[in-house]
Fold this sequence. Notes:
By secondary structure, the protein is an alpha/beta fold. It is 42% helix and 15% strand. The two termini are 20 Å apart.
Amino acid sequence: MLSTPWSRETGLRVPIVNAPMGGVAGGRLAAAVTAAGGLGMIGMGSTGTVSRLTGELESLGDISGPFGIGLVDWVRAREPGLLDAALAARPALIAIGFTEDFSWVDRVHRHGVATATQVYDAEHAWRAAAGVDVIVARGAEGGGHGAPTLATLPLLDAVLDAVDVPVLAAGGISSGRTLAAVLAAGAAGAWLGTRLSISTEALTPDRTREALLRAHGTDTLTTRVFDIGQNLPWPPRYPSRVLRNDFTRRWAGRENDVADATAARDALAAAMAADDPAVAPVDAGQGVGMLTESRPAGRIIDELCSVAERALRSWAAG
Ligand SMILES: Cc1cc2nc3c(=O)[nH]c(=O)nc-3n(C[C@H](O)[C@H](O)[C@H](O)COP(=O)(O)O)c2cc1C
């Protein structure tokens, strides 16, 4: 079985954590990842609320092991009670991302819960590791929001040199080969987003799922158009990697014009309500080209881990 010192200490059978993808990683996906031996995470993204979190916690059902909850820092600050509700659920891990302010860490630790955050350079990692238990080195290849600073492998290298805490690798890990690569490079585990976003348990709606399955690795870009188009207060340093579509073809490169384009903003809202990926945002990393079919998360994880294990064994055998 594929494992690392961190996965063994954490009581996981495999060194896999699903990224807490807002609107995608609900209780069903978290439960499936935990059942597969990884750490299942519920994600509350930019639309996270206490009632949404409560609903997804109910969907965890009779979870068979540890789980975690991921929050976006500016949403935590906006939604009173969200962090309290997360703590009350007694997760093994709380990840709060998109921040350089780690004042929440002590509060989470007082509840006996471990902490994680995503980082984008060695300096950020070093500051986070003064309190945070697990650092996620999230490379620019990754789907969704993040600072597109360094690619996953150079970032992982820099972060491993900067900190002594376990480091999970994130960004573009969509196959057993890339999983083997980050583990061989020293990651304590992998934090998978895009690869699990098309699992049958994910909340991803049907047409978005089909767009992900059709996409090639070259079909993504990093942009703020959708955040500006929805008037979301994402800090500018965290754009999102999404699939190219009609909306990005029209507005990427002139993001600030979207703020005043009422018709375009209305069309975006309508497309999101209708699950129309030709216009609505579809978060996806550069590993999207490896997605070929929607399958249960447990089967995806089993396959990634057995391919990675074989690759690492043949590498070690020389
Ligand atoms: C559909 C989707 C939604 C995401 N939503 C969130 C989120 O709400 N909070 C968060 O911390 N990260 C979110 N992310 C980013 C992931 O945490 C992670 O950085 C990324 O998925 C890793 O790259 P990969 O997608 O190539 O695996 C999201 C990613 C995707 C693909």
